[in-house]
Amino acid sequence: MTHKVTSQGFFERCAWAECLFAPHPTRRALFGLKPAWACREVTVRVHRNHSFEHVISAAGAWAAYAGIRMSWADAPYDDALSMQGLGEQPDLEVIWYDVEAVQSALGEEVTGWLLSRAQALRKLSNVPILMVVLGLEETAEQLLHKQIGVVPGLRLAPTAQVLAGIANPFDDRLRGMSGSRLSETANLMLAKHIACRWLPAMLAPRLKAVIVDLDQTLYEGVLGEDGFQVRLSAGHAALQSALKSLMASGLFLGVVSKNTREDVEALFAARADFPLKLGDFSAVEIGWGSKSDAIRRACVQLRIDPSAIVFIDDNPGEMLEVAAHLPEVGLIHAAQDVEQTCRNLDFFPGIWTWGVSHADMIRVADLNAVIQRRNIGLQAADKTAYLRELAPELEIWIRPVALRDRLHELSNKTNQFNLSLSRLDEVTVDAYLQHPDKFAVAVGLSDRLTDSGVVAAMFGSIKDGEITVEEWVISCRALGRELEGLIAASALRALAPDTKKATFRYKSGPRNSPGLDWLAKSSGCALEHEGSVSITISTLPAIADLPINLTIHPNERS
Amino acid sequence: MKDPKNLEIEVAKLVSEILDEPISPEASRLTVAGWDSLKHMEIIFAFEEAYGVRLDEAEMAALSSVKGLAKRAMKQA
Hints:
By secondary structure, chain A is of the alpha/beta class. In chain A, 41% of the residues lie in helices and 20% in strands. In chain A, helix 11 packs parallel to helix 15 (338-346) and helix 16 packs across helix 17 (383-390). Chain B is 62% helix and 0% strand. The mean pLDDT of chain B is 93.
């Protein structure tokens, strides 16, 4: 999402956050917020059988905070969701449906029917679909959630779960006049979820890290003055626990603090009551230099771009300095009211995720293995000895439909080793998996230190025995082991054992030089800005030459 | 008790914030083009929240002017 923060806009965004993430935001206060920053225009088409206008009008301010300006195109009210006469394709489709109208007629079949309507929409539109269903019991919603994988790019909003947290989600007075039975409290709650959680999670990759200051942010007090007696209030304990949960969901945590390292280490060692331990932070930058420089260094350690982090600090001066030097960093001001900070973090656009995958869960452990791997490399006599010590195992899946989400994620999140920057949507990924002339290959990598999970994705086509690789990405978690060529060769050989050559498409972007350097070296060609080059597969490393185990899952389509 | 005139000015301000245009205490759905049925519900939502009022359906439909809303707020007070 676009949330570039200029120094000038920082205080304005702080004021916005106070209003947007208040315990009980009001429509009147929301309407008073007009963004002074540029927002990305997103067109949304709504297929509905009850009104959504009161939700979207309230959602505007939250969306602007997320850097989105929503432009809504609605289809007519239609209990049958017949999807007739759709015009130009939007950026996002929303099915906004109250099952009350059809529940008595359909009974338990309502979830299957909803799924069939989403499938019908999928045939007419390639863009992501968000389904917000009112009136399903939580168990029915969970059942539907388990089934939605059959429709690529479909997400089911946890509406029942959200409304369960509201005392009065429905207001029968409003049925006639507003066209929906949703109460105003529910309107506002759904608006906040749509704009700060569901839309950002559909339109852009998730953020990758939360970096925090220490003094007056993670606890009350100043380490240099109060020593170990800094106070852990209930609010600070809640904030630390929230950060710990985010770490468990696959976000990196980092510390950037003006203190001395010894003091910080001693503090964490002394305070067993802190939910967070120093070891929970994958990047620790303690020193007296500028916070923006420290954040840059933390990003290098985490192998991520500053645009993929949010930084929390209590000191407006420090925040302004970061905004001035790193406007792409998301900022949360650690307010005196820590609960406000927790709410801001909870709804910060890009933090929420549709689900925690295996890749998310192993991300932190995998980064920790990087240093150990580097040490092994320094001590090993040669590459073979290095690999023998690591004992890598490659796993290759050909057309793995079950890995569609991960393949989509790799195409959209990978920056450094991403040859053509195609940023495939889920529908296109599905086409590569299903179409007989196309292919998608997933590559898993583990070694004796960690299981890195599925780290590479190859998409392409085979015509008359000729392979064209249209997209080839390797996650940065697999880089640095000098296995890029081997991974490519293994994938191609597993896909078409008799093929001698493969043509790779490429496009130069701001951050994909590691991938392009590999392609130039492997093909022996100088690369233009955009184009394609061929590689003779036999020139790439072969698995037989190296101490690596390989497992191939030949056709996982069904 | 609030002065009725002041209350009308206060309600006009509320309506103005929802409609995003200047509104006089004399304004009503008949005189303000932007005060359509959708905006009317939003005004009702904001009015209920601001004055701790819970209107019945008939009132929601009937209270279609600044003066009417101010009078209802006065009754609540």
